[in-house]
Specification:
The complex is a heterodimer of chains A (293) and B (371).
Chain A: H1 2-42, H2 46-50, H3 64-71, H4 83-113, H5 119-128, H6 134-148, H7 154-178, H8 182-190, H9 195-203, H10 208-224, H11 227-232, H12 240-249, H13 257-290
Helix pairs in contact in A: 1-13, 3-13, 4-7, 4-10, 4-12, 5-7, 7-10, 8-9, 10-13, 12-13
Chain B: E1 4-13, E2 16-26, E3 31-35, H1 42-50, E4 57-62, E5 65-66, E6 77-80, H2 92-102, H3 107-121, H4 136-148, E7 154-158, H5 166-183, E8 186-191, H6 194-200, E9 203-208, E10 211-216, H7 218-223, H8 228-233, E11 240-249, E12 252-258, E13 264-268, H9 274-277, E14 283-288, E15 293-295, E16 306-312, E17 316-318, E18 322-329, E19 332-339, E20 349-355, E21 360-362, E22 369-370
Helix pairs in contact in B: 2-3, 2-4, 3-4
Classes of the chains: A mainly alpha (293), B alpha+beta (371).
Chain lengths: 293, 371
């Protein structure tokens, strides 16, 4: 009796399992479809796309659209492709991510280990920054950039993104350091380490997982930003997202869908890369933390 | 003037005073233990000595130099924390030498100092490991190594053994005591464990609610507690407190109470002081340690003032080395420490022996000891 019950229980769970996997496969297929369409159409000649079937595999495989999107397509006045804009984005994202992460870590360190009167209020105000919509700051920010002489420059964009990112990075690091034992800071003080020595030698080396979180968040947000790039950059400093828009929206000539697809993938590639590379370290960092004695 | 002087030190947080006018003078090479229940201010006092907390008023001097406002790293002290506070990102060797590095000691000197300490603490094989790969006892050793390597004037220990299991705690306790005997460095040690306090210290400061209740050698603290708090906090099981009436009759002074049947028990008090005599006719509290209240044969043979009286046994608790027997005197529950093979059994009436040489008296209102 008991044995047959057990058997039937196993059978039900097997059926359930098969159903779950089927459903999961279906969803995976559904979500991967757009990527498939982008990939496939970026490697076929334009004639095959305009000929009708977007879903079909290419009859003639070609990397020409990729080359064109990267170095030849008409984006600005000159036919430069997306290449210079890609580097504009890199030149904006790398310093902005670096600076906002370091400042967030410093803020978190001060807010948890060097507490002062009114620190929670200050932290609350910084948190508030996370909820301010982008559109509200456009005009004041334009004014500030003008006063600083940074209007239309990459460093202007770096400033905007650092200011916007600090609320988030401070939140991450403050919460992480709140759980970081204060006795370690005191031990380091007795050992003779100063404010910055404790930060560089003790706090930062123990912050791997939260640095990864901060970098992923900041990198994707800043890389994908369109509004600030479109508002505050001039032709020489426009980021990838604005260039991609210009490429796709250009109203002259034939719409080269295959080039657009290739350009879109190029624009998405760095964030994808960051997720694939850093995401693994992120999980590893979490696991390492969970098995400590 | 001692080696480390704490002079009328007070500490307030906002309007709350957590330490009231603490005066302690520690001699060179002394092992001072600050003991008390949680929230008594002992860790605050230690942090003030370390320089991790400001002193609200009063002075702390080390070798005669005023330490108020001096940065922790310039006080020439080292501290072992309850959680050990080992830097998780550094190896054991780096942990030990970090302080020397911060004090700009040349590398060759750092390495030789580290090896010396590693040998002393037998952690030579662990030098390349990270703290996460160490057991609790090993972490404890590394934490002590980090303190030792700087060769400080004063060691501060903040409940260093409370994260260890019972057996390891006893082993490490012995090791700390050995270390103190070998090195002779001045140590200030905070604990809430009265056995640690008794076994390790050369002097104990018992603290409660921000006041030093009594400062003295372990023997003074144990035998002549200054007040009821010290009497009950130190010792396990704690001191028996029996309400008695003092009866001064010419030369002789008696403490009168009742046994479990309500019969009057008269206990002669040897060498009663004038304060106790003046309490004649009044009720005071008699304090007697469980080991001074035994069965007839178990009483201290060297004591010349043993008083006997019969009483009924409540429960017996065999603890292996001793058997604890409860009874009541003056309607207060009392614990007697008897030999392991005592024949006392629950409900039986047996003779109890009071070693009156060890008896102390307290004013029941103020709690202060009466001599």
């Amino acid at each position: 009796m008991a044995a047959s019950q057990q058997e039937s229980a196993i059978r039900t769970s097997n059926t359930a399992r098969v159903l779950i996997y089927l459903l999961l496969l279906l969803f995976a297929f559904f979500y991967l479809l757009p990527l498939f369409v982008m990939g496939v159409n970026s490697v076929k000649p334009l004639s095959e796309i305009t000929g009708g079937n977007m879903m079909a595999l290419p009859e003639v495989w070609t990397l020409e659209p990729w080359r064109k999107a990267w170095s030849e397509a008409q984006v600005g006045v000159q036919a430069t492709g997306l290449k210079p804009y890609f580097w504009n984005s890199i030149k904006m994202v790398v310093p902005a991510v670096f600076i906002s992460t370091i400042l967030g870590a410093l803020n978190g360190y001060v807010l948890t280990k060097w507490r002062f009167r009114g620190d929670t209020i200050l932290f609350g105000l910084m948190l508030f920054a996370c909820f301010i919509p982008f559109q509200i700051v456009l005009i004041p920010m334009a004014r500030v950039l003008g006063i600083f002489g940074l209007a239309g420059t990459t460093w202007g964009l770096v400033l905007v993104h650092v200011v916007y990112g600090i609320g988030f990075t401070t939140l991450y690091f403050r919460n992480y350091y709140a759980a970081f034992p204060t006795e370690l800071v005191r031990a380091a003080q007795i050992d003779g380490a100063g404010f910055f020595q404790i930060f560089w030698r003790i706090m930062l080396p123990s912050s791997g997982p939260i640095i990864v979180v901060s970098v992923i968040w900041q990198f994707t947000n800043i890389w994908n930003d369109f509004l600030f790039g479109a508002s505050f950059a001039d032709f020489s400093s426009q980021p990838m997202t604005v260039a991609l828009n210009n490429l796709v929206q250009s109203s002259t000539g034939v719409k080269e869908y295959n080039v657009h697809f290739a350009g879109a993938i190029l624009a998405a590639l760095p964030t994808l890369l960051v997720y694939i590379v850093a995401g693994r370290f992120f999980v590893r960092g979490l696991m390492a933390g969970s098995v400590k004695g | 003037m001692g080696f480390l002087d704490i002079d009328s030190a007070s500490k307030t947080y906002g309007s709350v005073e957590v330490l009231h006018n603490v005066n302690i003078s520690v001699g060179e090479g002394e092992f001072l233990v600050l003991v008390g229940p949680s929230g008594c201010g002992k860790s605050t006092l230690l942090n003030m000595i370390a320089g991790l907390e400001d002193i609200t008023s009063g002075e702390i001097r080390l070798k005669g130099n005023l330490m108020n406002g001096v940065h922790p790293s310039r006080r020439n002290i080292a501290m072992v924390f309850q959680s050990y506070a080992l830097y998780p990102n550094m190896t054991v060797a780096q942990n030990i030498t970090f302080g020397l590095e911060m004090h700009k000691v040349p590398k060759a000197e750092r390495v030789s100092a580290m090896q010396e300490v590693a040998e002393l603490l037998q952690i030579g094989g662990l030098l390349n490991r990270k703290p996460a790969q160490l057991s609790g006892g090993q972490r404890q050793r590394v934490a002590m190594g980090r303190a030792l390597v700087r060769n400080p004037e004063v060691f501060l220990f903040d409940e260093p053994l409370s994260n260890l299991d019972a057996k390891l705690r006893v082993d490490m306790r012995t090791e700390i005591k050995k270390l103190h005997q070998n090195l002779g460095t001045t140590i200030v040690y905070v604990t809430h464990d009265q056995i640690e306090a008794m076994t390790l210290s050369t002097r104990i400061a018992v603290m409660n609610e921000g006041h030093v209740q009594q400062l003295g050698t372990p023997k003074e603290i144990y035998d002549t507690p200054a007040n009821l708090f010290v009497a009950t906090f130190m010792g396990s099981p704690s001191m028996n407190l029996v309400p008695v009436t003092i009866n001064a009759n010419g030369e002789a002074v008696y403490a009168e109470t009742s046994n479990s049947f309500g019969e009057t028990v008269r206990l002669a008090v040897p060498e009663a002081g004038s304060d106790l005599r003046s309490m004649s006719g009044k009720t005071v509290t008699l304090g007697i340690r469980p080991e001074a209240l035994t069965d007839k044969d178990g009483a201290d043979h060297r004591s010349t003032h043993v008083e006997h009286c019969a009483s009924a046994v409540g429960v017996t608790e065999p603890a292996g080395s001793d058997t604890f027997v409860t009874t009541s005197f003056g309607e207060a529950e009392c614990v007697a420490r008897m030999r392991a093979d005592t024949d006392a059994s629950s409900g039986a009436v047996i003779e109890f022996a009071f070693n009156m040489e060890k008896a102390v008296f307290f004013d029941p209102k103020s709690g202060i000891r009466i001599d």
